[in-house]
């Protein structure tokens, strides 16, 4: 799984660590600026970028060779989106009085 | 015992003690463990997903009240905790790297650092919870959230009932996350013990990788919890 490249992965680990800390700082600062409805979008965009960095580099998904594993990850994301999107389609189109 | 002896014989005396007899080779064994862990993490994503869904529905309904309630939490403590968890994820990958490159002392040191970061996270979380108890922001009979203005609308007060829903979600989600941290600390205590006994080698350190996957997953949950719970409508 990790035998593909001989170069040390340390550089990428520390780069990802720096990017994650930067993302935390950015998400905090962005929350202090009034972007209207885009505040939530920016917060989720930064959080998803950070989650991807953790999954790809720290959890080694980037170098995963097993196709079955990729299928499990893809279906996890699919079913999470299904859960959230269908629920929001329901609640988002109800008229509460 | 007889099973393992049979396996040793069937491998012409070249049997690797770390390889279970029902796997063809070490790569297959490692992939099987990793796949099993990812399937477990899939169930965990759906587990937390239900709570995130509840959060989304109520945040949409009671946006202003959620903003007022969120503003009462110390975002600096939450931000510090995010940084603490990110550092702990780094020490986890460094521990695995140390195992891969046969650096036993570094591996043990990194595992200890991971656990210290984990304990620091729970300590900061404890300070945060203590504040909430003192402010009577814990849902229940003594809950009180009177005369708190809604951010951006100084003339309007938040509805305490709606704010209580936010705090219920806050305590359930961060509490469930904290419970995962406690379980993670238990797993890492065991990993540290195994590492101390010298059970992890460059060829075999699967428990370290599997435990690491769990730790990183818990980190990812927090990466979403931090902006969603602490940073709603923070701008002046």
Keywords for this structure?
heterodimer, A: 97 residues, mainly alpha, 2 domains, B: mainly alpha, Four Helix Bundle (Hemerythrin (Met), subunit A), two-stranded antiparallel sheet
Characterization of this structure:
The complex is a heterodimer of chains A (97) and B (236). Chain A is mainly alpha-helical. Chain A is flat and about 60 Å long. Chain A is built from 3 helices and no strands. The longest helix of chain A has 26 residues, at 67-92. Chain B is mainly α. Chain B has a single domain (47-230), classed as Four Helix Bundle (Hemerythrin (Met), subunit A) (Up-down Bundle), CATH 1.20.120.80. A two-stranded antiparallel ribbon of chain B has the order 1-2. In chain B, helix 3 crosses helix 6 (160-196), helix 4 (75-100) runs antiparallel to helix 7 (206-230) and helix 5 (104-134) runs antiparallel to helix 6. The chains are: A mainly alpha (97), B mainly alpha (236). Chains A and B meet through helix 1, helix 2 and helix 3 of A and helix 2, helix 4 and helix 7 of B.
Distance between the termini of chain B: 69 Å
- From the spread of the alpha carbons, the general shape of chain B counts as elongated
CATH architectural label of chain B: Up-down Bundle
Query: How much β-strand is present in the residues of chain B?
Result: under 5%
Give the class-level CATH name of chain B: Mainly Alpha
Mean pLDDT of chain A: 89
Termini of chain A, distance in Å? 56 Å
Task: Give the strand tally of chain B.
Answer: 2
Q: What is the N-to-C succession of helices and strands of chain B?
A: HHHHHEEHH
Number of domains of chain B: 1
Instruction: Give the tally of β-strands of chain A.
Output: 0
Any low-confidence stretches of chain A, pLDDT <50, length ≥5? none
Strand % of chain A is under 5%
**Would you tell me the structural class of the helices and strands of chain B?**
mainly alpha
Determine the fraction of residues in helical runs of chain B and give it as a percent range: over 70%
């Amino acid at each position: 799984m990790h035998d593909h490249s001989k170069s040390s992965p340390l550089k990428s680990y520390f780069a990802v660590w720096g990017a994650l800390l930067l993302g935390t700082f950015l998400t905090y600062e962005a929350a202090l600026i009034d972007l209207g409805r885009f505040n939530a979008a920016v917060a989720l965009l930064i959080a998803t970028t950070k989650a991807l960095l953790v999954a790809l580099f720290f959890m080694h998904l980037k170098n995963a060779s097993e196709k079955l594993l990729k299928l499990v990850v893809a279906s996890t994301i699919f079913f999470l989106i299904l859960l959230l999107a269908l629920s929001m389609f329901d609640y988002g189109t109800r008229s509460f009085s | 015992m007889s099973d393992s002896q049979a396996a040793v014989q069937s491998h012409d005396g070249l049997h690797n003690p770390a390889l279970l007899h029902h796997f063809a080779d070490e790569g297959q064994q490692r992939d099987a463990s990793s796949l099993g862990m990812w399937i477990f993490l899939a169930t965990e994503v759906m587990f937390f997903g239900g709570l995130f869904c509840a959060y989304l529905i109520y945040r949409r309904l009671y946006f202003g009240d959620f903003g007022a309630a969120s503003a009462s939490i110390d975002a600096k403590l939450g931000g510090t905790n995010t940084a603490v968890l990110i550092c702990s994820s780094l020490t986890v990958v460094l521990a695995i790297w140390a195992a891969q490159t046969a650096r036993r002392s570094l591996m043990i040191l990194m595992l200890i650092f991971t656990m210290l970061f984990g304990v620091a996270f729970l300590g900061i979380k404890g300070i945060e919870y203590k504040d909430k108890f003192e402010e009577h922001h814990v849902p229940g009979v003594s809950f009180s959230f009177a005369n708190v203005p809604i951010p951006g609308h100084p003339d309007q007060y938040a509805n305490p009932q709606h704010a209580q829903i936010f705090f219920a979600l806050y305590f359930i989600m961060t509490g469930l996350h904290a419970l995962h941290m406690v379980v993670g600390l238990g797993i890492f205590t065991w990993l540290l013990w195994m590492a101390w006994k010298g059970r992890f080698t460059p060829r075999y350190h699967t428990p370290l990788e599997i435990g690491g996957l769990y730790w990183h997953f818990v980190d990812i949950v927090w990466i979403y919890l931090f902006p969603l719970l602490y940073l709603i409508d923070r701008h002046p």
